[in-house]
Amino acid sequence: MLELIDVSTYYGNIQALKGISLHVEAGEVVTLIGSNGAGKSTTLRTIQGLLRPRQGRILFEGRDLQTVPTEEIVRLGIAQSPEGRMIFPRMTVLENLEMGAFQRRDKPAVIKADMDQVFDRFPRLRERMTQKGGTLSGGEQQMLAIGRALMARPRLLLLDEPSMGLAPMLVSQIFSIIQEISAEGMTILLVEQNARMALTVANRGYVLQTGEIVLAGDAKDLQVNETVRKAYLGEE
After folding, report:
1. CB atoms within 10 A of CB 151
2. Which domains does the chain have, with CATH numbers?
3. pLDDT tens for residues 69-81?
């Protein structure tokens, strides 16, 4: 479904991604793990068209995204729940979710059905429907960010640090939701500092270090890899 081939991305003269290659097959959960500054969020921003690689190719269902505008990439079926949630704080929960469906051309009844599905998945959002996004708790804002991405009806969902800043109980809840979404057939590329949780829900994983992929494999194999256990799972 998605393939990155020798992709290099820069911030000015600073090279953030150094010729990375990876792939995501339909129906998979693939995770990118690594420390701060490893290039994980940069990878998602490059896929989404928010950054343009100086080298390499990004193929989505066979189409090269190199020059495709971000809004068209969303229409093609890639939506992102970004790092820091980036909800619209002055808009209500309902209005934030409607923004997720802004580019869709479906009939209102179809969009309403998807909205009801988001509310069924996140009952707290239904309770907060008329509340401003900026007044929600961190966990509620994360639910809203994921719900907004789902309203785009993506075929590939990019999740950037969904557990960041959340209490352990909420982290477990968010990852349970990720598992539910995956079980329904959604393809997910997950960026996550909580490597233990990420590898629990993923099929495969890539380890990024200073802009390079240094390890790749099945999630179960990475969980028992000595380097991963010491560097990212906090084990000796």
Report:
1. 22
2. 2-231 (3.40.50.300)
3. 998 898 899 998 8
